[in-house]
Amino acid sequence: MSDARLDWEAACSAVDRARSILIVTHISPDGDAIGSLLGLTLALRERGKQVTPAVDGGVPEHLRFLPGADAVQPKVSQSRWDVMIALDASDEARIGDVGAVGLAQASLVINLDHHPTNTLFGAVHLVDPQAAAAAEIVYAWLERLDWAIPQTVATALLTGLVTDTIGFRTSNVTPRTLAVAQRLMEAGAPLHELMVRTLVSKPYSAIELWKHALATVQFSDGVISGVVSQEALKQAGLKDATDGGLVGLLSSVAEACMAAVFKELADGRVEVSLRCKPGFDVSQLALELGGGGHAQAAGATIDGPLADAQARVIPRLIAHLNGRCQHVRTVGE
Amino acid sequence: MSDARLDWEAACSAVDRARSILIVTHISPDGDAIGSLLGLTLALRERGKQVTPAVDGGVPEHLRFLPGADAVQPKVSQSRWDVMIALDASDEARIGDVGAVGLAQASLVINLDHHPTNTLFGAVHLVDPQAAAAAEIVYAWLERLDWAIPQTVATALLTGLVTDTIGFRTSNVTPRTLAVAQRLMEAGAPLHELMVRTLVSKPYSAIELWKHALATVQFSDGVISGVVSQEALKQAGLKDATDGGLVGLLSSVAEACMAAVFKELADGRVEVSLRCKPGFDVSQLALELGGGGHAQAAGATIDGPLADAQARVIPRLIAHLNGRCQHVRTVGE
User: What residue of A is the nearest CA neighbor of B333?
Assistant: First the structure.
């Protein structure tokens, strides 16, 4: 599916008629999932609708500063809703347990998403793969409904835009994205503060983790790689297995065509994150390793120990490049 | 000076009448200096003007990919110009040797800048401290002249916007900045490519440098600091003394109120870069050390060796904080 499937009229009239609305988003929610959820919830409440926002597990800690975050339900009990709206979720499985309840109990399901792989579940579709974020579609909807945008709604939606585009840095940012961001700023959303909070600011533990991880970096034959061991996580005082953004850092190296980060899990298995420059493809290798993903970003969880995992993956990345990395232009300085 | 000083009519009629125009910008030019220089040069040439763009030393290597970069003169010989336009330079000294020639030889000087400290040199002023970049003022000028914006001009100007705002992340970005960026994208400027080239992409040597520099990081009493030694630069294969963005990384740490990077110069002296969170001020200490700067970002070059420099500066930063850092909220995760 590549074309937009935008049933604006049906969507507008459905929320207009509805009294009770359940809004859900994808599990393991990111900034766009939560920003869209909160923005739409607050906008509908302004119009007097009875809205239940929900996502399995609730709002992640780092997004709880957003207006309305406290009202998000981590679970829902059996109830009836006139409408369920699913946000930023490409299929029914992605909306988790709260979504399953809603699918069974809501009279009508509206599916709002920007993933090209959306399965078009639900009765009414606001699916636009050209949108850089789900929040961009929520904004377009509110604009069509001709509803005023209070500062709280603008702040939630701009968080969605900013996080999903890594601060307007992804290739799917269009002039429309910037126009929406402009109007959200005009409605009072604090762009600078949101950028700092969600993209720039990092905990000291991330620096400690990088200290250890950068010491492991190897670069040869176009492939740059690094390791995050349980020991490094422990020394950085981190409980969850995170790479602290290491794969993003390594994939920004101009001379490298592929980047790989090997993260040791508590059970000894190894999570491999793969990235590559346009013109290459890491999704096939990820698939062969039992994982999946996109051409430029993919991953898999494989057996350890770390050294074995590296020995199994890196030569295959180099073989895939097959000497074709030498022509990558070095940009920057 | 806080108000805009915008003589649009005088500026428009001056370039309209002019046949020969010298355009200069500040020495050690950054992306906004070069982007504004090239954007305005190409736009004026489209209108048949005879334009000489110049900056001492020419265009830095990492900005030579921009359209028109080859035409920029590193020196100018004595000549006559109807108009000189100085871009992004707060005073006459900042426009270097080429600017000095222009000041002596041009019949009229137009001063276009966004620094609040602009001395209002020259006869005609396009000085707007509210603009996030000089390129934003160049765009406003072209809009007022009602000139079409070719893709080359749009690309140069968007480079200015993107680099000076670190990808729309600085606190001076306004809805107007985003509106200008939107129109430049519509005119064909490749936002994503410019973001990658100027902000994301880094040379492998930067990773090598961080390897060594992160190992030196210390964090106590609200002050985070690190060292870039000549040895580290050598091991990373770098000739010029650069911190590879280290001070930016350290100042993004949520729990730190101040960041300091100590960079050893070839002659043994030490360049100190200081950053702090809003509510604190590092400019006074920089001044006392014989340097200068702004409240949130300042620096000085002091005597070495490194350990002495650290011992002289860090306690003074901690004393300045005076225990007030404990209340800084930890944001992000």
Answer: A62
